[in-house]
Each structure stands twice: as structure tokens, then as C-alpha cells.
């Protein structure tokens, strides 16, 4: 008698639905079910300060529903066209699956089916396959040496497009470079967060939070925000720089207009050279270990100027300028645009392409920061991705909202699971040999 074996990792069904993200907007959640019954589920995040060259997030645009932000078309693509190509494929073949998704879409920016439709399938398939092999996602994707916990960059002051305050810079973060473990890093961050709340309140500021859960006080300048953060670190009993470093994401593309950086909150305009000089001053005056998007995505000369000026002593991470796109990153590496790349899976649309970007950065000796979006869900995939890739750094918001703490909590669990073999390298991950 001939018996036919069907791999247990064959995809049996693909479904999707609209769920809510942390801003109260709809986003795509996808389920991938395998022949052995393993279910992978992934919810797609969404940005507010998006790079111009990001893969396209498909929104319905009907102003009468969800204020135009509906994802019904993307959901329909998942359960229709995409499912018809993906069902029957082996979820173990992630690269093949992702190539098939990209080919099915057929556009360079994934605008036909939507990166939100494709990414949910890509991530859910990986999670289902991990489940079929009875492996945690970080182990399935990263193997036995995936045991480096990331340095967390915790966002404690929000501005820019993520808050309704006058701060021009979007994010002020703390990174516990002197912690001994990931769990300790989270405790240190939480302590500083609560000191900052008391300090802001004592100074008469509101302590409401922005999109990523950091406080959104009515401060005007980066110096004011950095002063509050440094004082909170000290008053908690830590040494700024040695125990906790500072990280900023000005999200500079957001206020670069006609060749000038327009600081609306501060009420000044700076030329690219003045903006770079201002950042260099802040980097020298405060224990700033990393700046993301210091210059705008269209100001490559500015990027090169700043990299030449401070790139030897500060991590300069490209977000909008690279959009997690391996080709854009290669060009940046070749031409001296920064020394680090931010990786957001939804900027490129498939897991395989995001992993290629990480590998290219690492081969060049560049650092990688795994990142959330300002619109998030309870999905914790990026926590596992940070460990799987061994990238050593993660940026996933404040210490106070479930959409952000879900990722920190997942990393606490992974650290516990790894036990003795878990490593946390503190500030050493900010450089690569
Ligand atoms: O600029 C950023 O780095 C991100 C995440 O912090 O914001 P958004 O998701 O709005 O692009
Ligand atoms: Mg950014």
C-alpha cells in the first residue's frame, strides 16, 4: 500500500480581519493555519511619520468609514488572491513564500495588494511554522545562538507627529547601557519614567502621554526635554551616560521644508548645516549615544556632513532614509549616510526582505535597531525578531501602554526561557567591531 505523507507545515488556510491598533484605527490581523493544526497570527503595525519610500499600506480611503482609514480591501486581498496562491505552500519555506507574495503583488512598492496585506501573511506563516516545530519564534528564526537580548530604547518624552505639544523632535528615549540583564534594564527604565512623571508634575506640566506612551509636556526645545530626562535619571539614583544613555529620534524629515529645518515649536529655522551643528552640540553636551533620523530623508548631504562630524562617537540610525530597504541601505553604506539602520518590518512588507536588510547591515559592520511603529497592537513579533537576528537593540516605546509593554514583557519571558545562556551586552551593542 502506498501512503502519501503531507508535510505538517503545509498551509491549509489563510484568513484576515480588521482589528484595532493603539491609535484606535483599524489594522490587518492575519491567521495562517497549517495542516498539523498550528496557528500563526500576526497583526500589522502602522506609522504616522512615514518615510516617502516605504512599502504602501493599503487604506480604503472612504471618508464615511473609519475616516478613510479602513483596511477592508487589504483584508479582502488576504482571504482572496493571496490565500489562493499561498494555500498548499510549505510554511517552512519562508523565502519562497515571501518571494511568491512579492511576485503576486507585482509592484515595486507593494501598492497593488498592500504591504499590510502581505506582511500579515508573511509573519503569521513564520509563527505557524515555529509552532509546528514546537519552537519559540526567536529560536525558529534565529537558531541555537539566538540568545542576545536587545538594549531597549525606551521612549519617555513624545513630540513631533506623535503628540500635540510644541516639541519639534519626535522622541526622547533612555537606554540602560549599564544594566546587567534585560529585566534589570526594564526596571531601571520604569523607575526613571516614574521619577520623570513626578518631576514634570512638580514643574506644573501635564503628564498625559503621546502615541508611544512617553509624556507629552508643553516643552519647546530639545534642551528642555533632555534636561528633564537627565535630572530624572540622576534623581532616580543612576549616572547619565554610565548607567543610562540618551537616544533621540528628531524624525527630521517631518520638519524639513524647501531645504530648511523649520522648528515650529521653538520658533526658529535652521539650514542643514545649522541643524547638524545643533545636533552635534546636543550630542556633546548630553550623554547621547544614538540619534535616529538626525537629518531628513531628502537631505543626504546633511546626513554625510553629520556622519563625518560625529559618526565616530555617536550611533546615527537611518529610518526614513532607508525604509528597511536593502537597496537603499547599500547605497547609504557606500556613500557614508549614518552608521546604523532602523528595521521596521512593515516598511518593506515581508519578513525575508527585512532579514536581508539586517544581514547587509551586519556584513558592513553597521548596527541594527529593531523597531515598532507609532500605531501598534499587542503583537510581539518584533521582540522575537530582535533576539532571532541578534541585532542587540530594540525601540518599542514607553513603559506604560500595553501595546508597548507587550514587547518588553515578551523579552523578559525570552530572557527567562534562555536562562544561563541569555546575554545582555548593555552599551557594547552600540558599536560593531
Ligand atoms: O519614526 C519612528 O521611528 C516611528 C516609530 O517610533 O514612528 P512612526 O511609526 O510614526 O513612523
Ligand atoms: Mg524614526
UniProtKB/TrEMBL annotation:
According to its UniProt entry, the protein's GO biological process terms are: glycolytic process
Q: Any idea where this protein resides?
A: Cytoplasm; Secreted; Cell surface
Domain spans labelled Enolase N-terminal: 11-141
Q: Where is this region: Disordered?
A: 43-70
User: Which biological pathway?
Assistant: Carbohydrate degradation; glycolysis; pyruvate from D-glyceraldehyde 3-phosphate: step 4/5
Q: Which keywords are on file for this protein?
A: Cytoplasm, Glycolysis, Lyase, Magnesium, Metal-binding, Pyruvate, Secreted
Catalytic activity as recorded in UniProt: (2R)-2-phosphoglycerate = phosphoenolpyruvate + H2O
| Amino-acid positions noted as binding (2R)-2-phosphoglycerate in the UniProt annotation, renumbered to this chain | 170, 344, 373-374, 395
User: For this protein, what is the EC number?
Assistant: 4.2.1.11
Residue spans with biased composition (Basic and acidic residues)?
54-70
Gene3D superfamilies cross-referenced by the UniProt entry:
Enolase-like C-terminal domain (3.20.20.120), Enolase-like, N-terminal domain (3.30.390.10)
PROSITE patterns in UniProt: ENOLASE
Q: Where does Mg(2+) bind?
A: 249, 292, 319
What are the positions of the active site? 212 (proton donor), 344 (proton acceptor)
Domain Enolase C-terminal TIM barrel span(s) in chain numbering: 146-432
- What broad class of enzyme is this? lyase
How is the cofactor bound, as the UniProt entry phrases it? Mg(2+) is required for catalysis and for stabilizing the dimer.
Where, by residue number, does substrate bind? 162, 171, 292, 319, 371-374, 395
Annotated HAMAP family:
Enolase
Which PANTHER family does its entry note?
ENOLASE
Task: Cite the NCBIfam families for this sequence.
Answer: eno
Q: What does this protein do?
A: Catalyzes the reversible conversion of 2-phosphoglycerate (2-PG) into phosphoenolpyruvate (PEP). It is essential for the degradation of carbohydrates via glycolysis.
Q: Which family does it belong to?
A: Belongs to the enolase family.
Question: What is this protein's record name?
Answer: Enolase
Organism expressing this protein natively: Streptomyces diacarni
Which gene name belongs to this protein? eno
